[in-house]
Amino acid sequence: MYDIxxxxxxxxxxxxxxxxxxxxxELCRKIHNxxxxxxxxxxxxxxxxxxxxxxxxLVKTKxxxxxxxxxxxxxxxxxIQRDFLKKGxxxxxxxxxxxxxxxxxxx
Length: 107
Prior knowledge:
By secondary structure, the protein is an alpha+beta fold. The protein has two domains: 49 residues, no CATH class; 32 residues, no CATH class. The chain is built from four helices and four strands; from the N terminus they run E-E-E-H-E-H-H-H. The strands form two sheets. The chain has a two-stranded antiparallel sheet. Strands 3-4 form a two-stranded antiparallel sheet. A hairpin with a 4-residue loop joins strand 1 and strand 2. The protein is extended and about 45 Å long.
């Protein structure tokens, strides 16, 4: 979730976001297994449910139907170097995987 709101005290626009988490699926449990919230993963909405998720008339009881782990068989994970975003030699594993995925879904 993303929002921009007006801070009445500082009189400035503030950009905020929230990450909704759900219990981890099998794949994510292997990756996110420590810290403050072990066994959690971000909520992922499937393409077929995107329209329902952003529907302004969606009621609270229907929203809770989305709060379940995304199917792990529809996901993939790749090991990357810890510093893959630093300038210089970049680990292209994630970028190559994303390009391959985008090519397959765009036809």
